[in-house]
Amino acid sequence: MRVWILRHGQAAAQAPTDPERPLTAAGEQEVRSMCRLLAGQPLDTILASPYLRAQQTASLVAGELGFARGVSTAPWLTPDDDPAEVLGFLAERGEQNLLLVSHQPLVSQLLSLLCEGHRRAHVPMPTAGLACVDTDFVAAGLGHLQLLQSPAQLAD
Question: What is the pTM (predicted TM-score) of this model?
Answer without folding.
Answer: 0.97
